[in-house]
UniProtKB/TrEMBL annotation:
GO MF annotations in UniProt: DNA binding; DNA-binding transcription factor activity
UniProtKB keywords: Activator, DNA-binding, Transcription, Transcription regulation
Record-linked CDD domains: CAP_ED (cd00038)
Record domain Cyclic nucleotide-binding: where: 15-138
Coiled-coil stretches: none
GO CC term (a single one): cytosol
Database matches in Pfam families: cNMP_binding (PF00027), HTH_Crp_2 (PF13545)
Cross-referenced SUPFAM superfamilies: cAMP-binding domain-like, Winged helix' DNA-binding domain
Regions crossing the membrane: none
Protein name: Helix-turn-helix domain-containing protein
Domain HTH crp-type: 152-226
Amino acid sequence: MKDTKKPWSLSEFKLFETLPMEDLEHIDQMAPSTNFTSIPKGTLIQTPEVNSKGLSIVVEGRLRLFKTNADGKQYTVGILGTGGMYGESKSYSFGTNGNYMEAMVDTTICSINQEKFDHFLSMRPELALKLLEELSNRLRDRDEVLERLALSDLRGKVLFFLTKLAKKFGVEENGYQRIEIPLTHQELANMIGATRESVSLILQEFSNEGVIITGRKSIMVQLEMAEERLKLT
């Protein structure tokens, strides 16, 4: 990982959009350019044994949260995109610790000093409520993921993750949602603890049915068809 000097502004993120200008300027002062770090794709930035302290925000890119079982298989429990937050302090936790975390693509993050942000948060209850809302949404998404991983067959797991990725990171293209993450069959298999071969067979089935269109490291999802099939799994 290396520091980047690109002049990002944290005050542009949705979390802070309702704060007055004075507070926005204070937030940007808490995150000077030296706190912005570039992370190459595939870099592991957290393990269950070494957790993140303080608040960190994804400025650009994608981070994957995952766990492993006794056999070493990976199970994705969340994906953080631009504006996604992780870490913890005395005042809050985003429920990301205890997981592995890796960069799915080249990613830029910003770290904010824990003590300074805790003090800032204690003076602004409206921001604390937003953080609680973010945590609530995160926990709801995680519970949904874990339920699908536990109860769905492989076809249902693949369809669930493709639908979720298309909704969160999709761009409309000819009636499909193109997932804006370069995604190989192996990477998708890693998300659900399956083999590449079995996932490739399922993807071929969905392609034949017109639910998805696959390309080199790209997948497009027809959301209406995907959601109808998801109801049956």
